[in-house]
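Lecture notes, unit on binding sites. The following record was shown on slide 14. It pairs a sequence with nicotinamide-adenine-dinucleotide.
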Amino acid sequence: MKICVVGTGYVGLVAGTCFAESGNDVACVDIDAEKIARLQRADVPIYEPGLEELIKRNVSERRLSFTTDLRGAVRQSVICFIAVGTPQGEDGSADLAAVLRVAGEIAAAMDGYRVIVDKSTVPVGTAERVREVVAARTSHPFDVVSNPEFLKEGAAVEDFMKPDRVVIGSDSQRATELMKELYSPFVRTERPIVVMSAASAEMTKYAANAMLAARISLMNEFANLCERVGADVDDVRRGVGFDRRIGHHFLFPGVGYGGSCFPKDVKAVIRSAELHALDFRMLRAAEEVNERQKRSLMEKAAAHFGTSLRGMRFAVWGLAFKPRTDDMREAPAITLINGLVDAGAEVHAHDPEALNEAQRLFGKRVHYHRVNYEALQGVDALFVVTEWNEFRRPDFVRMRQLMRQPVVFDGRNIYDPNEMRQLGFAYYSVGRRPVK
Ligand SMILES: NC(=O)c1ccc[n+]([C@@H]2O[C@H](COP(=O)([O-])OP(=O)(O)OC[C@H]3O[C@@H](n4cnc5c(N)ncnc54)[C@H](O)[C@@H]3O)[C@@H](O)[C@H]2O)c1
């Protein structure tokens, strides 16, 4: 099939590449000319495991191309995906400006029937608004489909290739059949394609993210209570996870959720409810707990050192909002680093992939290190904020030798408290009793 994907961010680039990998002709479109020029040179602007290799192969086999020419791309496509950003607007709702603009541009370029697919995360009613925008600018027939994306950054290619399910929101049989055909290579292992109305598909995406975010906040609250009453949240996590009604996923406590999706999607649901005179209390609480949790490492440091942090030196391992990505949008590390720098401390940061992004965010306010141990030289404590695999079994003896004080604040529970005590560290984690 000939398709185009407008927006070459984490979602559009991965979707476009994976559609090409399954044999389709795909044009990826973006307004960011620099990004397109980089992609044309096979210089991939984001880090996502396996993506670069797929892009190179599909470009060289001429199934995948990158362009700023939306009109040309629409002209040669049957299905046009909209995968642009839907950032948080001023009032918390999703900002649909880019989605509606692209819808209008697609309409203006159409020369026959097209399926226009909302892949961006958008509130209920957006497919209808897209339909209005398109109808106002073309007399050619078209269908609008909602096809939300559920991939996880850090495993985006794998998730796209083997989705748990594909959701198609459409009331058109013609469009639904085309979408089913497009997705058939991805659902061969008995994965379902769930067809519903566009409104329900739009809501499904928000409901999934809201449930995951709420689960994280609930677990973080249990971790905080465990710390106070002397239980170990790791045991509790295992104990409840074996309950088949609950399951093991998303039960790890930490320093709060971040990323480009959960924070803004939770806000968008709260706002959407408000607009319909509903106070979505569960999600307001999930959000409030998350904001507090992002400050928890800073609070533990203040309690441990008991004095001002001014003039102290700290290492931070892990800047991306989660492992295997370079994405720092809403990352808990930002809250921590801003807190430390504002308190007058010196921050030495390391991340396997996100250093460029961190430099863009913090500039000269932070010192950056390509090697994790180099960040430890002479520090008063280490904060572990992202659970990259390479941090899991470090050389603790070397760490102790490098650090001025052997203090570790582990925001992801990746070390064993007893082992850390034996090694001579003052060790703090989440929901497990502090060991001094
Ligand atoms: N990142 C994720 O893990 C994820 C997962 C599922 C769903 N989503 C949703 O998918 C959407 C895209 O997310 P993302 O993370 O890929 O965003 P992103 O910010 O990484 O990428 C968006 C891209 O759209 C381009 N763009 C903006 N306006 C444009 C226009 N008018 N014409 C052409 N290109 C334009 C930007 O230049 C950018 O390259 C959002 O709605 C998001 O909520 C994201």
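Take-home: The CA atoms of residues 75 and 110 lie 6 Å apart.
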